[in-house]
Amino acid sequence: MTPRVLISDKLSPTAVQVFKDRGLDVDYEPDLGKDKEALHKRIGDYDGLAVRSATKATEKIIAAADNLKVIGRAGIGVDNIDIAAATAKGIIVMNTPFGNSITTAEHAITMMMSLARQIPAANASTQDSKWEKSRFMGVELFGKTLGIIGCGNIGAVVADRALGLKMKVIAFDPFLSAERAVELGVEKVELEELLPRADFISLHTPLTDKTRGIVSAEALQKAKAGVRIINCARGGLIDEAALKEALEAGHVAGAALDVFQEEPAKDNPLFGLENVVCTPHLGAATTEAQENVALQVAEQMSDYLLTGAVTNALNMPSISAEEAPKLKPFVALAEQLGSFAGQLTQSGVNSIVIEYAGDVSEMNTGALSSALLAGLMRPAMADVNMVSAPTIVRERGIAVDEVRQTPRGAYDSYIRLTIKTERQERSVAGTVFSDGKPRIIQIKGINLEAELGPHMLYVTNEDKPGFIGALGTLLGDAEVNIATFHLGRQSQGADAIALVEVDGAVPTKILNQIGGLPQVKQVSALAF
C-alpha cells in the first residue's frame, strides 16, 4: 500500500511536489494543525505527519495515530511534539537542524541594530507625522562587546556578522573549545564573566533544564548597566518578569525579543515598554529558509517511508536493517554512557576519547560514537540527535578519538568514554550482558556493576563507616524508595562511589542534605 502523508502546517509547495514525485500520497491541509479535534479524528489514516510549529503532536494525538510511522518537523525546535509518546509508540521524530541558520542569525543582527537605533519607535513616530529627531538618540555597534550565549551553528554565524561590524565578541558555551573559539575570532568566557562585560547579549542556546531561565533576575543584576538583550532562540531562556523590572529600573537599556515564554504571545508583561522591540517568532521566516527546511523534511520522510533510511532522527539511531539486532543494545549502552557523563559535566569539554574493546570494536562504531555524542550533549542541547551530534561537536572544535583494542579484564566486550574538560578528566565504561541489557562497569577507574534506571543518585564519598546508613536514613525519611544500591571504591578508606537507583525524583532539599553528609564529596541526580 502506498504510504500516506499529511502536511498539517503551511509548507512550501515544493515539498508537496517532492512527496508526489517520490510516489507517496500526500494531503496538504495547512490549517488542520490548528484544529486539535479534527487532527485527532484524521491522524489515524496516515503513515507520515509533516509539521512546522503550529501543529501540536501531543500524547493524545499520537495515541490516535494507529498507522503513523514518522513525524517530520520542518525546522529545528520540536517543543510541539511529544517525543516520549512518539518513541513509546514506535514513531520516528525527525527535524531539519541546519536549514535556517543563516536566516535566524540575520534576524538576530537585525534586532540588535533595531534596538541600538530605536528604529521601530522612530518609524512609528515619523509616520504619525511627528518629527522627534532629538528623542531617538541611539548607540553605535562599532567597538561594543557582544556576548553570545550559545555559540553553535547559529551563534557562530552571529559572531561572524558581528565581527564584520567591528564589534568585540565574547561567548559562553560549555561545548565550545578554546581552539574553535580562536577559529571563530571570539573570546571564550564563563557566563559570570560575560554578564558584566557585554554591551549586548544575544541568546542562541536551546531550551533545556540547564538553560531555562539562564537570564534570571540574578543574572540581570550581574549584567552591565545599560546592557541590551536579544533573544531569537527560545522563549523561556529569559525570566520575563525580571527583565521587565530591569528595563523599568533602567539597568537594562533595551530588549529585542522574537520568542516568548508563551506563544502566540498576545498578553505579555513586556508589551508596551518603549525600550522593547518585539517580533512574532520570525527567526526562520524567510523564503530561502522555509524552502530549505521544507525540501529537507520531505526528502527525509520519503526516504524513510520508502526505503527505511533514517536521517536527523531525534529518537532513533541511523542503523541499517542488517546491523540492527546486534547493534541495538550497544547503541543503548553508548547513549547511556554519554548521558551519564553529560549530566555530570559542568565545564567546557576539550577532548573525548571513545574506547571500543572486543567484539564491539568490529561493529559500526561510527553509529555508536554518534549515539554516545548525542547522549553526551543532550542534557545541554535538547534537540541534538545522532546525525547532528558529530557536526555540532566538530563545530565546537572538540577533538574526538576512537580507539579499538583487544579487551582487558573480565569482559569480552566493552565501551569506555573519557572526557577531558577545562577542570578535570572523567571516565565511565560499560558493557552489554547476555540478557541484552547495558551495564555500567567502571566509573573514574573504580569498578562497580550497575544497570541504569530512570532515576539515579550518583554520590562520590570517602570510604568511611556510617555513610550507607546515613544515606539510607535520609532517603527513607523523605519516603524515597531505593530500588538498587551499587558501591565501588579505590581501596579501603579511599575514594568511593555509590550509584543508587530510586523509584522517583529526589527533591532538591534532600540532595542538599545528602551533600552535607561529612563523608560526601559530590551528589548528583541523574535521569535516564
Question: Architecture of the largest domain in CATH?
Answer: 3-Layer(aba) Sandwich
- Poorly predicted spans: none
* CATH topology category name of the largest domain: Rossmann fold
Class of the largest domain, according to the CATH hierarchy? Alpha Beta
Report the principal-axis shape.
Answer: globular
Indicate the mean pLDDT.
93
What distance separates the N and C termini? 38 Å
- Please report the number of helical segments: 17
Estimate the strand proportion.
Answer: 15-25%
Written account of the structure:
The chain is α/β, with parallel strands linked by helices and 528 residues long. The chain folds into 4 domains: 4-98 and 288-310, 3-Layer(aba) Sandwich (Rossmann fold), CATH 3.40.50; 101-278, Rossmann fold (3-Layer(aba) Sandwich), CATH 3.40.50.720; 317-444, 60s Ribosomal Protein L30, Chain: A, CATH 3.30.1330; 453-528, ACT domain (Alpha-Beta Plaits). The chain has 17 helices and 22 strands. The chain has helices at residues 13-21, 36-42, 59-63, 83-88, 101-117, 119-127, 153-164, 178-184, 191-197, 217-222, 240-249, 287-307, 324-344, 365-377, 388-395, 467-477, 508-515, and strands at 4-7, 25-28, 48-51, 70-73, 92-94, 145-149, 168-172, 187-188, 200-203, 227-231, 252-257, 276-278, 349-358, 399-405, 413-421, 425-432, 438-443, 446-450, 455-462, 482-489, 495-502, 520-527. It has a 7-stranded parallel beta sheet with strand order 8-7-6-9-10-11-12, sandwiched between helices. β9, α10 (217-222) and β10 (227-231) form a beta-alpha-beta unit. α1 (13-21) runs parallel beside α12 (287-307), α5 (101-117) crosses α7 (153-164) and α13 runs parallel beside α14 (365-377). The model has no long low-confidence stretch (mean pLDDT 93).
